Amino acid sequence: MTQTKPGRSMTSEKNATGSSAKITPEMKNSEFHRFFVDELKDIYWAEQHLAKALPKMQKASSSKDLAAAFEKHTKETEMHATTLEKVFELLEEKAAAKKCDAMKGLLEEADTIISDTESESFTRDAGLILAAQKVEHYEIATYGTLCAFARQMGHSEAAKLLQQTLDNEKNTDATLTKIAESFVNEEAVAE
């Protein structure tokens, strides 16, 4: 049986209007709220740096479909950062970035793939898709958890914004899979 702290129920309470919870001083000072905001800062940094890295991945792509997907996702990633700024505002927090070591490592891996593969090759494109999907899966895990945190704390408007970004990340991952499976992987094997 799951244990709860004294005075707490297993179900979350919603305010009378069903809208986002009011940010109280107690909430802002809670360890969980601080942790949530810290993770928002982490993904904010990640989105900002990914937006700078995607054009390089686009330029390194030989497939027009893959280059177009990277171009589209660059614009979406810039919008994700803007969306996070709205989430910070809803939480009455300053939008600030904290270095995301995970994203830093994933982007370094993408750079290594570019330098270790032949230009204009499908092997490079397959590697770029691999690198991009690693990024997408990291973002999907992060946004999924942040949505759950926001909902649990009663931040319904923030949760909606985070869910929109999560849905976008899933769509990008599906697009990359489609490109890989429709021709890139087959062409890479044939090289």
TrEMBL record:
Q: Which residues cross the membrane?
A: none
Where are the annotated segments for Disordered? 1-24
Residues annotated as signal peptide: none
Please give one Pfam family short name: DUF892
Q: Which residues fall in a compositionally biased region of kind Polar residues?
A: 1-22
Question: What Gene3D superfamilies is this protein classified in?
Answer: 1.20.1260.10
Q: Tell me the protein's name.
A: Rubrerythrin family protein
Q: Organism source for this protein?
A: Niabella ginsenosidivorans
